[in-house]
Amino acid sequence: MNRFLILFVLLPLSASAQPIDYYRFPMDIPAVFSANFGEIRTNRFHTGIDLKTGGSVGKQLRAAADGYVARVTVAPNGYGRAIYIAHPNGTTTVYAHLDRFTTEVENYLRAERYRLRTNDLDLFPPAEKFPVRKGDPIGFSGNSGASSGPHLHFEVRETATARTLNTIARGWIAGATKDTTKPTLVKLYHIDIDTLRGVPVHSAPRVHELKRSADGNYSLASEQPLKAGPTSYFVIEATDRRPEVTNIFGIFRVRMSVDEREKVVFEKDGVRFDETRYACASTLYELQRRSRNELVMLATKGGNRLGMYKKSEGQGVLRVAPDDAPREVKIVVEDDAQNAVTVRFTVVPDPLHAVPQTPAGTPVSDWKDFVYFADGMAINIPQGALYEPFFYTQQVVDQRVTPRADSIRPLSPLHKLGDGSMPLHKAARVTIAADVPEAQRARACLAKVAANGTLGWAGGKWENGAVAGSVRDFGVFCVVADTVRPTISMNFPEGADLTGSAGFTVTAKDNFSGIADFRGTIDGEWVIFERRASRGEFIHRFDRSRLASGTHTLEFRVRDGVGNVTVIKRTFKN
C-alpha cells in the first residue's frame, strides 16, 4: 500500500453523474460472474455481485478507486474476512470472503486481536492509517465466512446510507463478457384476493404455462384469455443466463402495464440492509424457497416498504368488473445488460368467480402486538412483524419425527404455528411447556420439525417449566434437550514436533445446536485462531515472535449452543 495522505470530503454522487470508468475491476483476471445484484435468496436479496476466482484462493485484489480503508472485519460466517474502502465520491466498495489482507493490515489486525483477546473483529481504522490509490493491492481472494466455494463478493455502497448499488446495470464493471442472452420466462401465476373481516385472503396460485414465439417473446400456452375475479394480481417466474458460465442469474427489472398504462415497476437498482428481508414479501415465499428461478410479485403488500418497487399503482392489484371489456396485460422482464422479453395476454371477467370462505383462525392485524396461548404453547407476534394481516391458527399435530442416533427426541407435543407460506419480518416469541427431566433442563431448547420429520435447532432456553425462544418462520416446533458435548480432533498427535510447520488445525463438530464459542491457549496464553465455520475448522498460524522454542501445551475449548463444553489438551514441540 502506498503511504500517502488522502484528504477529501465524502459527497454523494448521483448515478447519472458517476463517470463510467471511476471504478476499475478489483482483480487482474477476467471478469466472470457467478451471481448478480439483487438475486432473491432465502429471506433476503443478494447485496452485491459474486466474481469467480478460477476455483482457487489467493487472487490479488486491488482497490477499485482512490480512497482509504474504512473498515476491516473478521467473522466465521457472513462476509468472513472483508475490507471496506471509502471513496471521495461518497461511495464505499466492499471486498468479502477474503483469504488474507495486505501485510500492513494483517499486522494491524493481529495486534488488535491480541489486545482485545478476540478472534472476531469489526475495526474502523482512522482515515489516515491506510490510504490507497486506485489499483493498489488490498488483499487476496478467499473462501472465508458463509462461502460455498472460492470467489469474491464485491459491492459498491452509498457511504452515508449503506445502500448497495447495482454495479452491473450501472456499467461500473469493466472487462465483462458482453451479455446478449435474453431472460427466460418460466411461468405466470395468477392469484385472486379478497378481504374478509379486514384480512386479505389469497387464493391458491393458478399456474399458467408460457410459450416462446419466434421473435423471442412469450404468450400464454393455452392461447385463451385469462379469467379473473374482481381483484387479483400476478407473479412472474423468470431466470437469466450469461454467455460465459452455466450459473443462473436473477433478473433486473419487471414492468407491468394494463391497457398500455404502466401499473408496476420493480427494479433492482439498490437496496438498504434494513430493506433486504422484504424479499420475503416480494415473492411467493414458499415456492421461492424451493426454486432456483426468481418469482417476482407484481403487487405490494401493505407492510412491504421495499424501495425496489418504483411504481405500484393501486398496489398492483388488477380490478375487473363483471361487465368490463377485455383488458390487455403486458409484462416486460429485463436483465442487467438491457436484454428484455415480453409476455402479452388478455384478461376477461370470470363469471364463475367464487367468493372465498372465511379461513379458520384468529384475525391478526399488523399494527399491534398479538398474543395467543393454547395447549401449553404461547406466541407473541410483535407489531411490525407482518407484511399484511392474516388468520392465525395453532394446533397440536401428530407428525412422524425421524429418529436420531444421538438421542435428540421431542420432550413436548408437536405444535404447528401458523402457515409455513407466511413469512415474518420480525421474530416472534414462542414458549412451549414441556416435561423435561431436571438433569436436562439446562440443555433444553426448541427444535423445528421439517416436513420429512427431521429436527433442527431453533434456539431458546428453559424458563419456569417451559422453553422460550425467538423464531423467524412459522412451522412445527417442539422441545428437545441437547446433552451431547461437541467433539474435537487435531491434525497432529500428542508430543508432535511442529518445528517446521506453519501452524496446525483443530476440527470441532457438534451434533445439534452448533459451535457457539471457542477459545485456544498455548501455555496458558490466549492465541489467535481463524475459524472456518463451514468446515468446522480452527486454524492457528505460529507467531514465532510470541512462541519460543521448546515444548508447549495447547488447550482448546468449545461450547455448543446450549452450553455443552468440551476441552482438549495436547503438547507439541516447536
Report on this structure.
By secondary structure, the chain is mainly β. The chain folds into 4 domains: 33-165, Glucose Permease (Domain IIA) (Distorted Sandwich), CATH 2.70.70.10; 184-349, Distorted Sandwich (Coagulation Factor XIII, Chain A, domain 1), CATH 2.70.50; 362-481, Sandwich (Chondroitinase Ac, Chain A, domain 3); 487-573, Immunoglobulins (Immunoglobulin-like, Sandwich), CATH 2.60.40. It contains 2 helices and 49 strands. Strands 15, 16, 17, 18, 19, 20, 21, 22, 24, 25, 26, 27 and 28 form a 13-stranded mixed sheet that branches. The model is unreliable at 1-16 (pLDDT under 50).
How would you summarize the topology of this molecule?
Elements: E1 33-35, E2 40-41, E3 44-45, E4 49-52, E5 60-62, E6 67-74, E7 82-86, E8 91-96, E9 98-101, H1 103-116, E10 121-123, E11 131-132, E12 137-141, E13 151-158, E14 164-165, E15 184-196, E16 199-202, E17 206-212, E18 218-220, E19 226-228, E20 231-239, E21 253-258, E22 261-267, E23 270-271, H2 285-288, E24 294-297, E25 309-312, E26 318-319, E27 327-334, E28 340-349, E29 362-364, E30 370-374, E31 377-381, E32 390-392, E33 394-397, E34 414-417, E35 423-433, E36 444-449, E37 455-457, E38 461-463, E39 466-473, E40 475-481, E41 487-490, E42 496-497, E43 503-509, E44 515-522, E45 525-526, E46 530-532, E47 537-541, E48 551-560, E49 565-573
Parallel strand pairs: 18-28, 19-28, 42-49
Antiparallel strand pairs: 1-4, 2-3, 4-13, 5-12, 6-7, 6-10, 6-11, 7-8, 8-13, 9-12, 14-23, 15-16, 15-17, 15-20, 17-18, 20-24, 20-26, 21-22, 21-27, 22-25, 27-28, 29-32, 30-31, 31-35, 33-34, 34-40, 35-39, 36-37, 36-40, 38-39, 41-43, 43-47, 44-45, 44-48, 46-47, 48-49
